[in-house]
Write a structure and sequence with these properties.
There is one protein chain. This protein has helices at 36-46, 61-72, 126-129, 149-160, 175-182, 192-195, 250-262, 266-292, 307-318, and strands at 8-12, 16-21, 30-34, 50-54, 90-97, 103-108, 141-144, 164-167, 187-191, 210-214, 220-226, 229-230, 234-236. It is an alpha/beta fold. A hairpin with an 8-residue loop joins β2 and β3. The protein contains 9 helices and 13 strands. The longest helix has 27 residues, at 266-292. The strands form 2 sheets. Strands 1, 4, 7, 8, 9, 10, 11, 12 and 13 form a 9-stranded mixed β-sheet that branches. Strands 3-2-5-6 form a 4-stranded mixed β-sheet. It is globular and about 55 Å long. α7 (250-262) runs antiparallel to α8. It has one domain (8-318): UDP-N-acetylmuramoyl-L-alanine:D-glutamate ligase.
Length: 345
Amino acid sequence: MTKSREPSIFGTGLIALDLVIGADENRPVRSWAGGTCGNVLSIMAYLGWNAFPIARMNGDPASQRVKADMRRWGVHLKFATCSPTSHTPIIIQQIKRGRDGVPRHRFSWACPRCGEWLPGYKAVTLNAVETILPHLAAASVFFMDRLSPAALVLAEKAKQEGALVFFEPSGKSDEKLLHEALNLIHVLKYADQRLGGIGDLVEESRSLLLEIQTQGEKGLRYRHRHGNRLSGWQHSDAVQAPTLADSCGSGDWCTAGLLSMAAKRGLSGFMAAGPTAIGEALRYGQALAAWNCSFEGARGGMYAVNRKNFAHQIGALMDGEEYALPKPRKDRSAMTVACPACPAH
């Protein structure tokens, strides 16, 4: 696989089926591809990139639904069924409005019907990566949100081929794997509420170019490398969301916005961009995050707004202008996905 005109992102990590129960109890449950890696790659495809998830999806209904949804946005699934295949993780997201009227979401990994745990994440194995490694020459970016021996082998190869390596941990990682990752990655992004302590390890990294700490409604702060040293922290206030329907997935939109603006030419392009361009790319990502808050689900806006209107609305957000929100429309691609543990009917 050679580098194409469109930039390419390869990624491995949490690719799941999101079952979204909205604040309106009369609205049917919606099912979309989700998980941090699944969202980032789907958004990047929406933004015009070639996106290649590396996963272990099998032929169960959840896998079929995830693959159908990703295929809808042009995601390439050549490496999505690595052996040994496994059940696709299922995550239930429920949105409810508090007494103050503000929508809040919570996640569940257990079936609300039978009470059994839903399928969880399983990393790609080392045996599966050999056939993928030659194709990483096409990568502009390699993304990971879960660490495993196989993920690090893939990241190292992508780095050797000139790709920008992006790590977005969602929780604590194995200490040995984390130290290895910090010597491979170029960009680290994490939420201060979850992993604020990881910043203490950043000074050990020999390759890190940009560290991003998200702070929810307060915005984010970041620091970048100057020669052998990291700069001081710079703060960027959050872009004001037009309305708040659901904040789930906004961090994934921020990641995709940054990458789409600053990493089209891989590592060399990112390094040449300079601090000002990186700040502008982050601001674009924050605008995407704010826009996403107007829709239920981690990527609900993709099903409600066409690409032309999307570009117009993001431009308006960045200019501080108002725009009309689209009316909710029925997603005809939804399908029922049963819990694998529930008795068959």
